[in-house]
């Protein structure tokens, strides 16, 4: 028997250390790709032009190709496919390009070369895409919500899990006991996610999604369906029928389900099956 078999991992101590890392700004955060950061600077600069943005994106052939794929996806499908960055930006629209670039950048954020957490990171990405696909379809039925932003919200709702996994990758005792790691993730990922998105200067509605998406009994600020409602519904639907704690949840007891509407939710389930929106979005983002 190895020495690690006789040791017991201190979940509480790990959680306290992670909280301290956050408070003292020493947490290991994944970074957005440089090309994404450069593009966001251009987008946020009132003196910049579409040509400036086109030139930045064209420098990265991978991002350029993904943006063209994004513009040709069912979200924006026109009569003819576009084949250039300029045409893709024109079709998406300058206001929506920011969400598109951030969504495309997320695939790199959810990647890891650490073998100890590679499988979990891939599982986290697949779940995030599933939530994003459902959120996108739901948002299309609410004129005050933006489907692009709903998709991004779905992709980043669990992003706080990533720094936890990175820290856990150095803790064999934690990785060997998945129930302990699950417990740490459940307790801390919303706080960590909120911290990350504030650090990246994300818009407040997206920060709110990361901060409260698992608080199913939350008191919404108004009667109007918001992005948190959309993500809560999409998140629970994505877990339904699995071993997750939401797997056998009584949907009628979730306030967000009542707010969004059961008829619409049934429609979304039909649209986001294996051959529907989820597959399309996964193809665009990968």
Q: What can be said about this structure in brief?
A:
The chain is mainly α.
Give a topology summary:
Blueprint: H1 11-23, H2 34-44, H3 50-58, H4 61-71, H5 85-92, H6 94-109, H7 115-139, H8 147-156, H9 161-168, H10 172-176, H11 178-199, H12 204-212, H13 227-239, H14 255-260, H15 262-271, H16 277-285
Helix pairs in contact: 1-11, 2-3, 2-6, 4-5, 4-6, 6-8, 7-8, 7-9, 7-13, 7-16, 8-13, 9-11, 11-12
Salient structural properties:
single chain; 286 residues; mainly alpha; Hypothetical protein af1432; 16 helices; disordered N terminus
What does this structure look like?
The protein is mainly α and 286 residues long. The protein has one domain: Orthogonal Bundle (Hypothetical protein af1432). 65% of the residues lie in helices and 0% in strands. Helix 1 (11-23) packs parallel to helix 11 (178-199) and helix 7 packs across helix 13 (227-239). It starts with 10 loop residues before the first helix and ends with a helix. 40% of the residues are buried.
Order of helices and strands: HHHHHHHHHHHHHHHH
CATH topology assignment: Hypothetical protein af1432
Indicate how many domains the architecture comprises.
1
**Highest-level CATH class:** Mainly Alpha
Runs in which pLDDT lies below 50 for 5 or more consecutive residues are 1-6
| CATH-derived architecture | Orthogonal Bundle
């Amino acid at each position: 028997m190895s020495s690690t078999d006789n040791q017991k991992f201190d979940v509480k101590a790990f959680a306290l250390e992670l909280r301290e890392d956050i408070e003292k700004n020493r947490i290991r955060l994944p970074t957005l790709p440089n090309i994404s950061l450069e593009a966001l600077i251009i987008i946020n600069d009132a003196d910049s032009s579409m040509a400036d943005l086109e030139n930045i994106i064209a420098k990265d052939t991978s991002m350029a190709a993904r943006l063209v794929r994004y513009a040709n996806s069912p979200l924006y499908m026109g009569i003819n496919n576009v084949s250039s960055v300029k045409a893709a930006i024109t079709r998406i629209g300058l206001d929506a390009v920011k969400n598109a670039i951030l969504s495309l950048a997320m695939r790199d954020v959810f990647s890891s070369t650490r073998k100890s957490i590679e499988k979990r990171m891939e599982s986290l990405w697949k779940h995030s895409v599933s939530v994003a696909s459902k959120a996108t379809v739901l948002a299309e039925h609410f004129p005050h919500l933006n489907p692009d932003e709903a998709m991004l919200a779905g992709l980043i709702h669990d992003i706080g899990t990533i720094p936890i996994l990175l820290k856990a990758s150095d803790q064999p005792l934690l990785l060997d006991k998945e129930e302990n790691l699950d417990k740490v993730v459940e307790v801390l990922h919303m706080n960590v996610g909120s911290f990350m998105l504030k650090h990246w200067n994300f818009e407040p509605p997206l920060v709110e999604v990361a901060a409260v998406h698992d608080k199913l009994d939350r008191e919404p600020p108004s009667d109007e369906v918001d992005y948190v409602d959309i993500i809560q519904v999409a998140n629970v639907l994505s877990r339904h029928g699995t071993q997750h704690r939401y797997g056998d949840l009584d949907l009628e007891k979730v306030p967000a389900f009542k707010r969004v509407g059961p008829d619409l939710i049934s429609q979304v389930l039909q649209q986001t099956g294996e051959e529907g929106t989820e597959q399309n979005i996964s193809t665009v983002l990968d």
